[in-house]
Amino acid sequence: MSEDVKLHVQEVQKQPQNSKTRPVNYTHTYAYIQIFGHGSRGETRSIFLHTDHRNYLFNCGEGIQRLVFEHRVKLTKIENIFITRPTWRNIGGLPGVALYFQDNGVSSVQLHGPEGSMGVMESTENFMTLNDLTLKSADVSKTYKDPILTVNYVLISKSRKEIECDDVYSDLPLENISLNDNQTRSVSETSCSPENKVKEKEPETKSKTTDLLIFICKIEKKLGHLDVQKCRDLGVPSGPLMGKLKAGEDVILADGTVIHSKDVIGENDEGPLFIVLECPDEEWMDLVIKNQAFEKYQNSGIGEKIACIAHLTPEKVLNNPKYKEWMQKFGPDTTHLIINELNTGYSGRAVYEMQHQLNLIHPKIFPLLQDQQKHMHLELHHENKFSTDETEGKKPEEKDLDASFLRHNLKVRRCKSLDIFHLRPKKGLTTEKNIKINPNVHNQDTMKIDGLADSLAELQTEISAKTKDLGDNIEEFPKIHMLGTGSCIPNKIRNVTGILFEIDEERSMLLDCGESTFHQIVRLLGETQANKVLRSLKAIYVSHLHADHHLGLIGILEEKKMVTNNPIFLIMPQQLMPFVHYYSTRCNKILDNCELVCNSDILLDHSSLTPTKLKLVLDALNLSEISTALVVHCPFAYAIALTLTDGRKICYSGDSMPCDGLQKLAHHSFLLIHEATMEDALESEAVARGHSTISQAINTGVKAKVNFTLLTHFSQRYAKLPLLTDTEESGNDYSNVGVAYDLMSISLSKLPLLPLFYKTLKVMFNEFREEVCKKAIKRGD
User: Fold this and answer.
1) What is the CATH number of the domain that holds 561?
2) Is the pLDDT of residue 171 over 50?
3) Coil/strand/helix, residue 51
4) Under 8 Å CB-to-CB from 245, ≥6 apart: which residues?
């Protein structure tokens, strides 16, 4: 666990962990909405409601856990999560957040969403166990009320159609799944412990979920403050009489004087209202804007006013004149918060600052991120576009509004991540927490690190010499993009596992796809190139059932469906299919043109795939061979080897302890991508968790006689720099070993450059390295 994560956990653990231990009778003095992910294609879109004693979450998209760690939001104060629609954009982060709740002592969370929202979580039982967390489904036919918040649900339904089973799933012999199958006999006994066993329940086929839930929320009334000085001036003594006045009761003094509560109490805050709504497309628009639930807040001026409306609504709907007219009916005092694909800005700082530092090492292997270039360009565009009289007198945060919204006299904000709308006290929108990144200042600070300038100069000389040695052998493809290089949980610097393998310009595949894998692709390559990747994607490989290796799968399939209908192979354990199938049949049909290849069907020397199907896979990927091997980590865990048509073999370990199966599979590989979760001093911890140390990973490569070993999947305690033991101490030869970082792009021909970097990385991150070493000394390593 990284130091940032530890600090965050220690902070949240100071809070009461469930409602039973929290006070019920309290005064809530503040409430504000915070945009947690502005909704662009490479970001999540979630909303927090923060109050003194409880927090509430509206939608829980992929990547939210990573942002929570970076911005130190108290997830453990959440007892209620509200879902507008059970699409992956809204619930993709829920499994990871549920595991976080469980790990941090939260005993119960209530889920408020349309039918199907809870079912998605129930379908994760093959790879997630929530023994210590109860997820309860709220009854959305009744108003929700607690001491802070009242929520009226507006349930909107379309007509429903029965959904047929997807062919990719219906042929699976799930009733035969067992930990006693021959295919699992090579797995160690520790990895087959009861808590790891795979459940076999098949989700029943029901009608597709076609409901939309809108939330009309009201913060509870707050009594005005008691004016103590005024009480004293009127002769009220301190004590019970003042308490009664504060509670709204009139009192009689000893001399018979009547003191009225209203004379010594300030004005009550009746409680602001806000709405969270999603209008997914124009087909839903009439159902939303014609719903009578909103009429009392519109036009007449008699009903209560809405402070703000958060629109999780695409631009095409927002630009429809009927929708704008409906927005206008709420009046000029309502602020409309837009959370959609046209928003720009950053949700986190660390990933960009890290990439700017690494870019100094090698500008092509660690390229500046494309979504940052887009944000900078669009922000400049907005500044130029609205430097006219039309924005005279407007607040700075209003100057990027679409002119048509201004003409409709609408108070609209295209949100950036961390925007805050203050409900109590009523301060409206503030942007002081918005993230600004100044590359020049950051690079100047980096170059002040003692000895870095000299080390970089020496490194550039070595890179030039090595590049010259490579000569004409440098080629653009095949290319590896490391999208996530951390283990277990996402960190602000390292995301969970994901590797994009571009075989050539027309073919690519993913090797594992942890949560936010698609966000990382957009961040690294930009939207245009990300669409090209989706069209080139011929296969997605999932190594095993642990959530940090596949919670980005559904998001990838949804994004691919929007861009292309090209067929794709899903190479993964069949035990993952009930989860994917449930989502496809109940929420969004994503398995069209997908074909399952079970990892167990292409075992080395034991392939059961038909020659015809094997040829289809190989032709699609332009490979000459593909095979897997069972590894020692957990049940149904595999490594994979891909052999290019030129004979070069790329082997990926997934998560694994050292084992004969992996060594045999990797034999004579050109590249072995191997997990290296722990430093060498923590070998016993690595064994307990079924992982490898750095030296164990390197030794597997040596024994398998591989050409190059790329280390990845580091414990988040090594976010900036994994600890490679000195050669004198470990006996390791690092001349053909590289260390992976998130958002690193490298062709196979440039792999020899990577061993040159570590010496300079140690200088760049020396302060971090010293802290890690101090902790090792403290442990007694």
Assistant:
1) 3.60.15.10
2) no
3) strand
4) 226, 231, 236, 251, 259, 261, 264, 265
Residue 526 forms part of a structural domain:
yes
Per residue, the 3-state secondary structure of 682-697, as one string, reads: HHHHHHHHCCCEHHHH
For strand 537-541 and strand 507-513, is the pairing parallel, antiparallel, or unpaired?
parallel
> Beta-carbon neighbour count of residue 134 at 10 Å?
14
pTM across the whole model: 0.86
pLDDT over 90 at 190, yes or no? no
CA 137 to chain centre: 23
Which pLDDT score, from 0 to 100, does residue 711 have? Answer: 98
> Phi/psi at 309 (nearest 5 deg)?
-125, 125
Q: Percentage of the chain surpassing pLDDT 90?
A: 64
Domains contained in the chain, number: 2
248: CB partners within 8 A, 6+ apart: 223, 261, 265
- Give the E-state strand segments of 369-496 in sequence order: 411-414, 420-424, 428-430, 479-484
Per-residue DSSP letter, 486: B
151 vs 81: CA distance, rounded Å: 12
- What does DSSP say about strands 306-311 and 251-252: parallel, antiparallel, or unpaired? unpaired
Q: What average pLDDT does the segment 269-281 reach?
A: 92
Tokens of 166: 């997807």
In the block, tokens 């993964």 appear at: 572
- For 273, 298, 572, the CA distances from 303, given in Å and listed in that order, are 11, 7, 55
Last residue of a domain, one of 241, 264, 287: 264
Q: What pLDDT is stored for residue 780 in this prediction? A: 66
Cα distance between residue 769 and residue 598, in whole Å: 41
Place of tokens 């829980």: 60
424 with 272: CB under 8 angstroms? yes
Domain membership flag for residue 89: no
| Residue 586 within any structural domain of the chain | yes
Beta-bridged to residue 640, according to DSSP, are 628, 652
Biggest alpha carbon distance in the chain? 103
pLDDT, mean of residues 69-85: 91
Domain boundary among 214, 236, 264: 264
Domain that holds residue 657: 449-779
How far is it, in rounded angstroms, from Cα 719 to Cα 726?
19
For residue 148 the two structure tokens come to: 């802070």
For residue 68, being part of any structural domain is answered with no
Give the H/E segment covering residue 274.
Answer: strand 273-277
Q: How many C-beta atoms surround the C-beta of residue 6 within 10 A? A: 12
Residue with tokens 């061979």: 625
Distance CA 690, CA 216 (A): 48
Helix (H) / strand (E) element for 353: namely helix 350-361
For 594-612, the three-class secondary structure string (H helix, E strand, C coil) is EEEEEHHHHECCCCCCCHH
